[in-house]
Amino acid sequence: MKSIFDSLNDNNRKIETWIDGKTSKSTSDRYDIVTNSATGEQCASVIMSTKDDVEAAIQSSKKALQTWSQTPVLRRARVMFKLKELIERDKKKIAQIITQEHGKVLDDAEGSIQRGLEVVEFACGIPHLIKGEFNNQVGTGVDTFSMRQPLGICVGITPFNFPAMVPLWMFPLAISCGNTFILKPSEKAPTCANIWAELLKEAGLPDGVFNVIHGDHIAVNALLNHEEVAAASFVGSTPVAEHVYKTASEHGKRVQALGGAKNHLVVMPDADMDQVADALIGAGYGSAGERCMAISAVIAVGDSADPLLEKLLPKINTIKIGPGDDISNHMGPLITAEHKEKVKSYIDLGEKEGAKLLVDGRSYDISNSAGYFLGPTFFDHTTKDMRVYKEEIFGPVLTMIRVETFDEAVKLVNDHEFGNGTAIFTRDGDAAREFSNNIKVGMVGINVPIPVPLAFHTFGGWKRSLFGSNGVYGMEGVRFYTRLKTVTSRWPTGIRAGAEFSMPTM
Ligand code: NAD
To answer: Of 30, 112, 182, 237, which is best to mutate to test ligand 1, by the most ligand atoms within 8 angstroms of its C-beta?
Structure first.
């Protein structure tokens, strides 16, 4: 069989659905163009799947579920061990695809694969993770035990910014828990999904356990409305997360929907300003700010703002922008021309709203490039009522608010509608402890700007950054992808004692 890796340099490659262990011809002939964000040129086209394609994927998943859900957990774990090896083997090639379609710099792309790979490593321990509990003799001759059983067909709908990592947050655990999984990746960066399909097949996963549907809201809604789907995991923007949460819940599905963000970094006056400046450069402008855990709002407490700017502004001016396949560059392009225009319009808006524009990314240009490049931007004297502070921009734009006290900083973070990640930079343990105890945000960093938890913890925000009760991966992931059953058993000697008519009290 021809591998997708063979066509990676072919700009006419067509990314098709993957059903029953092979690429499958869609009933649609509607393709979307995928562009190389550093050149603006086509690098692939992707099929926009139809309701019929979704139906075919569901039927394939349903059939595979019968045997996969009964497959011993050790054998399911072995597929994950093998997948880990294959991802390590192909990591460099996968990173090239991410850089081509998304634009992030190669070593950043490889780093994102590594963070996803860690979830595969976690899933290798599924025989232990999925264990139930047992109590002997809860009553005379009575034992109670619990087990975690698979849900059935699970679907994953993922965003453009982490085409390898975000699917890896989902399917390794879903599959190793005994479910079948249908992935609907972003149409802007679709190739990785088919790579996962090929690698899973090579790792020994039976056909139909992992299927891929491509496309837009038509495919998503067909999946969410389908009665055979048991659970939906979504990662993307907040308006779509709300839609997915509502639709999937109304159709009786278990759902976790992770949405957008506006992550604050609080700078206390005692912080090491060199450290804060370095942290802001990476967390604000890395991956062109297209990370849900990027820092986009700086809260400078007391007299910290000016010493910080003294360190930060010269560093912003040294950021090297260009195509991600040149690893001497620090920042690549944005995902599409349309998104670049949206981010630019926020810079226009910030000026109109009266924020002080200290660094203007709009002036940045790579001559002779049709790529979607935009320079780093920094606004000082933003206020809490400005839209550039309130809304998610998802680009290389930092806004700073100056406040007098720690309490004002905490209130700003707590009053914000998003609650994905946040960080405090300080040398004071009491301030850090107070912050982590009282802040209304799901992931908190203390002198750590992007506190993405490792695979054996759990990723998830609060407020309008997560809809549903479970975060992704870690034990929350195992709980999300399984249903708990508790069995109370008594064996014949108890029955031989005769029938009981009163309520058993143990
Ligand atoms: P998006 O919401 O536009 O798209 C996400 C997925 O939803 C894609 O697969 C897309 O095809 C599908 N989709 C889009 N519109 C839809 C609709 N109307 N109905 C049904 N499905 C639809 O997000 P994006 O632009 O791909 O990604 C960027 C967003 O994702 C940002 O808001 C970012 O903060 C967020 N994000 C969040 C996390 C997190 O963990 N919280 C992680 C990564 C990205």
So the answer is: 237
